[in-house]
Specification:
Layout (H helix, E strand, L loop, with lengths): L6 H11 L2 H5 L1 H19 L1 H4 L1 H23 L7 H8 L9 H11 L19 H6 L2 H10 L2 H25 L3 H25 L3 H20 L15 E2 L3 H6 L6 H6 L5 H10 L1 H7 L4 E2 L2 H8 L16 H7 L27 H10 L6 E7 L8 E8 L9
Parallel strand pairs: 1-2
Antiparallel strand pairs: 3-4
Helix pairs in contact: 3-5, 5-6, 5-12, 9-10, 9-19, 10-12
């Protein structure tokens, strides 16, 4: 479903849709040729390039291919889902079958439940129940995953583990379509890995972990804090005014709020649509706008960008959300106390401080980590971790 800002925008997009560029989708066809040609071209000259350079180039091209897969599942460049799938089924990015990714991502576009860990398959939040069931090691990993560096290093591992878990569930449920998609993907992956090894000198381990894993890490740059947990669904999705390299690599999906409102707009038109109504989109998404991925890196390289437990759906999360729009109150145990009237002295919560807070928490089954944040105008910069024991009778189901 498309959500237009107003009738004027609807008419503007109808005019764009009537253009030859949009009707022919020649930029997407050119992209398909460029990605496939570049990927196999680099593979064939891998020995000449040298393995480090070849693997690096293939990782970038595989990430670009994942952006193409995203474009394909949204109905481009043809109206046929089957034809589009033929261009997206190749296992160039290693880890996930196209059909499984397509089904999962379309569920993610249910904006009413965006970020809900029980309903959004791409949410990086967890339920209170999952947090309470996690051991100290897993809690630390979840906290690390909410830093920029941690997302790049650990995010792919979480995604792969989640996909394999879902495959196990599909096998137990005898989900023929899902298991069949994995079987086809596995067959193509084995064939491609064999060819790369024999013809190009790229072993299977180098392919999976020297190409596939870094490609997922690059993709994690785009998805880092792509959605925030707030009550208003229209303000959950970011607009990232990234540089040309990232815009091309991610096919303008950095204009993510525009994409969620207008998922049928092709990648080459997203920038035009956004620039035409830049102020209106900033107003619509609650000014959740950043100026490049370097801004995330500078602020959250080793600081958590958001709570681990969903801060709105969790019963006590509402308290943290309310605290995010006023000067911070009192820091948690083992974190230094700051005066409420002096928000500038707030310390970002790092995985280390989060771990200290976890260690200080009472050993009860219903202890949950709540992270209080600065006002939204500071882009939800994490101030400090606060460990709270919530009443079991008030917990929400995951």
């Amino acid at each position: 479903m498309s959500l237009y800002l107003d009738d004027r925008q609807r008419q503007e997009i109808q005019r764009l849709r009537a253009s030859w560029r949009w009707r022919s989708e020649w930029p997407t066809w050119l992209l398909i040729v460029g990605i496939y040609g570049g990927w196999f071209g680099v593979a064939l000259i891998a020995r000449t390039l040298g393995m480090p350079l070849a693997l690096g180039a293939l990782a970038v091209l595989s990430c670009w291919y994942m952006s193409l897969q995203h474009e394909l599942l949204h109905g481009h460049p043809t109206r046929s889902a089957l034809v589009n799938a033929l261009f997206g089924v190749a296992p160039l990015a290693v880890w996930f079958p196209y059909a499984v990714y397509r089904e999962s991502h379309l569920r993610h576009h249910d904006d009413e439940h965006l970020t809900d860990p029980a309903r959004d398959p791409e949410s990086y939040f967890v339920s209170a129940q999952r947090w309470e069931a996690a051991g100290a090691g897993m809690r630390l990993l979840l906290a690390l995953r909410n830093t920029f560096v941690g997302r790049l290093l650990l995010g792919p591992a979480f995604s792969i583990a989640g996909a394999l878990r879902d495959l196990g569930i599909a096998i137990l449920r005898r989900d023929v379509l899902t298991v069949g998609s994995w079987a086809l993907h596995g067959t193509l992956l084995v064939a491609l890995a064999y060819w790369l090894d024999r013809r190009c000198g790229i072993g299977w381990f180098a392919f999976m972990f020297g190409v596939g894993y870094p490609a997922l890490a690059l993709g994690a740059v785009r998805s880092f804090h792509e959605h925030r947990a707030v009550e208003d669904a229209s303000q959950r999705t970011v607009i990232n005014e990234a540089g040309w390299f990232w815009r091309l690599l991610f096919l303008n999906n950095n204009y993510h709020a525009v994409h969620h409102d207008l998922p049928c707009v092709p990648w080459f038109a997203l920038g035009t649509v956004y620039r035409g109504r830049r102020a209106a989109y900033a107003e619509r998404n609650g000014r959740f706008v950043v100026h490049g991925y370097g801004e995330w890196l500078a602020k959250f390289a080793v600081s958590m960008v958001a709570p681990v437990v969903h801060p709105v759906l969790h019963p006590l999360g509402r308290q943290a959300a309310a605290a995010s729009v006023r000067p911070a109150a009192q820091a948690a145990t083992r974190l230094r106390t700051v005066r409420e009237s002096d928000p500038a002295r707030l310390e970002p919560a790092t995985p280390r401080t989060a771990a200290l807070a976890m260690r200080a928490a009472p050993v009860t089954p219903n202890a949950a980590l709540i992270v209080q944040t600065r006002p939204q105008s500071a882009h939800e910069h994490l101030a400090f971790a606060k460990v709270t024991a919530n009443d079991a009778s008030t917990r929400l189901a995951s």
